[in-house]
Amino acid sequence: MSQPVTAVLFTHPMCVGCGEAIALLTRLGQQNPRVQVRFLSLAGKEGKAAGERLGVHAVPTVVFQDNPALRMEGVPEWEALTDMVERLAGEAIGTETSET
């Protein structure tokens, strides 16, 4: 049985790589409805508070399952994102397989 996966992407208006990270996380959420993606800016009150609580000091940073130990700093690679989700949810996403 697969579990829902939450992914919070922390951004900032001055972040150079955040646009690419936003596109990747948007794609991740679109390809698997069990992945709940949120975007928070460290420039905003809510994002700043959540970032402090989770120890986020760099952007872009993705935190999974509200667990600071499950984070990716910088623009993540697609394979790293899907591997993390597979591990957390117990299911493969974003890959096409053909069995004959």
Written overview of the protein:
- It is built from three helices and four strands.
- The longest helix is centred in the N-terminal third of the chain and has 14 residues.
- Strand 1, helix 1 and strand 2 form a beta-alpha-beta unit.
- It has one domain: Glutaredoxin, CATH 3.40.30.10.
- The protein is globular.
- The protein has a four-stranded mixed sheet with strand order 2-1-3-4, sandwiched between helices.
- The C terminus is likely disordered.
- It is α+β, with helices and mostly antiparallel strands and 100 residues long.
CA-CA gap between termini: 25 Å
| Total helical segments | 3
- CATH homologous superfamily classification: Glutaredoxin
- SSE order: EHEHEEH
Task: Average the pLDDT over all residues and give the rounded result.
Answer: 89
- What is the global morphology? globular
Rg, please?
A: 14 Å
Q: Write down the CATH topology.
A: Glutaredoxin
Q: Main β-sheet, in a few words?
A: 4 strands, mixed
| Lateral strand order in the biggest sheet | 2-1-3-4
Count of extended strands: 4
Please provide a brief summary of the model.
The chain is α+β, with helices and mostly antiparallel strands. It is built from 3 helices and 4 strands, in the order E-H-E-H-E-E-H.
Question: Strands, helices and their partners?
Answer:
Layout: E1 5-11, H1 18-31, E2 35-41, H2 45-54, E3 61-64, E4 71-73, H3 78-89
Parallel strand pairs: 1-2
Antiparallel strand pairs: 1-3, 3-4
Core attributes:
Glutaredoxin, four-stranded mixed β-sheet
